[in-house]
Amino acid sequence: MDLNILWFILLGILFTGYAILDGFDLGVGILHLFAREEHQRRLYLNAIGPVWDGNEVWLLTGGGALFAAFPVVYATVFSGFYLAFMVLLVALIFRAVAMEFRGKVNSPDWRRAWDWAFGLGSLVPALLLGVAYGNILQGVPLERGAVYTGNFLGLLKPYPILTGVLAVTLFTMHGAIYLTLKSEGSLRQKLVRSASRLWMVVLSVYFIVTVATFFAAPFLFQGLGQNILFWLLLLMEIAATMTVSLSLAGAKYGRAFVGSSVMIACMVGISAISLFPRLVPSSIDLEYSLTVYNASSSEATLTSMAIIALIGMPLVIGYTIFIYRAFKGKVVITPDSY
Questions:
Q1: 3-state class of 71 per DSSP?
Q2: How many CB atoms lie within 10 A of CB 41?
Q3: Cβ atoms of 262 and 232 closer than 8 Å
Q4: How does pLDDT run across 92-109, given as a tens digit for each residue?
Q5: What is the structure's pLDDT at 327?
Q6: What is the number of domains present in the chain?
Q7: 334: in domain
Q8: What's the average model confidence in pLDDT over 71-86?
Q9: Is residue 21 part of a domain?
Q10: Is the dihedral of CA 47, 53, 59, 65 positive or negative?
Q11: Is 275 inside a domain boundary?
Q12: Kind and range of the H or E element at 216?
């Protein structure tokens, strides 16, 4: 294994961590749109209140690592997806502001406005992130020399939209399962039913996306059957998928959450294996694709960053574990809560 492959794996870990951790945050926000009672809305907010900002650190760290390790990819993707990323940023800002401002004025109209901001600030990022990843999987219009020739509307093709729908349904299911750990009584049973229905929706959409991939990005399947990691992740994904359903039925909600987390990790992992060694395939000619070799920083930079990452990542993981242990258990609404 060389440094280029190591950084491909590290980036995969960072973005997978973000998908798992902020994925349930976004899912809770989407479910918040459908909450009908004030107590239920406040419970949703306070379920993620202590952890949401720490979860977003994984996205920031992943973006910084991408800039340091593969600057050509960073420049190409962020310039090509510029408008979409600006919409994503505005949505994330409104989500954060909504949590802080919602309870500052004792007015139903005030709270309703910020409820919409919180819900849409969760739905839009989930959709955009899925659409962006779908464009990466399908390939973007790159000429020789990493020249991006597309536009914003060109990103809204059927296949990326399908992957966006998959991301929304997957994160919403993940969020519903997380909320079963934070609630009790009739609300928990309602969330269990919602998570079970969403599990079936996720399976259906995932099957459709997989079939669509054969037509939209057939190059992703080249040599995949000979990769032992693919089969390992596929078996883990099947086991995790069944674990989610069986655990929800058996009231093993912690196990269901672990299962949904592994599902997400395996989906990201399988897609990463399919892409490798490409980071951004070119839809014009695969020879123009950005790979872990033609888009990387110098060996000295990769070495320095690897040392920093091997020191910093355990700290981030340790901090994450500490926070979740500190705030484990059911949500208790107090006058100081959101």
A1: helix
A2: 21
A3: no
A4: 999 999 988 888 888 888
A5: 82
A6: 1
A7: no
A8: 87
A9: yes
A10: negative
A11: yes
A12: helix 185-216
Tokens of 4: 């280029």
Identify whether 75 is part of a domain: yes
Helix (H, G, I), strand (E, B) or coil at 143: strand
128-170 pLDDT, tens per residue?
999 999 999 999 998 888 888 877 788 889 999 999 999 999 9
Please state the rounded mean pLDDT for residues 39-65.
87
The predicted-structure confidence for 227-257, as pLDDT tens digits, reads as follows 999 999 999 999 999 999 999 999 899 999 9
Of the candidates 14, 98, 84, the one whose C-alpha atom is nearest the C-alpha of residue 56 is: 14
Strands (E), the chain: 142-143, 147-148, 278-280, 290-291
- Nearest of 270, 229, 244 to residue 19 by alpha carbon: 270
Judge whether 257 and 177 are in contact, CB under 8 Å. Answer: yes
* List of long-range contacts for 11-17, beta carbons under 8 Å, 24+ apart: 11/62, 11/65, 11/66, 11/69, 11/70, 12/268, 12/269, 12/272, 13/313, 14/58, 14/61, 14/62, 14/65, 15/58, 15/59, 15/62, 15/268, 16/264, 16/265, 16/268, 16/269, 17/58
Sign of CA dihedral 19, 25, 30, 31: positive
3-class secondary-structure state, position 3:
helix
Distance CA 38, CA 67 (A): 42
DSSP string, 244-280: HHHHHHTT-HHHHHHHHHHHHHHHHHHHHHHHTTEEE
- 């340091």: which residue's tokens? 68
Residue type, 84: A
CA 228 to mean position of chain CA atoms: 25
Residues pairing with 290 in the sheet = 280
Query: Structural domain of residue 307, as residue ranges?
Result: 3-326
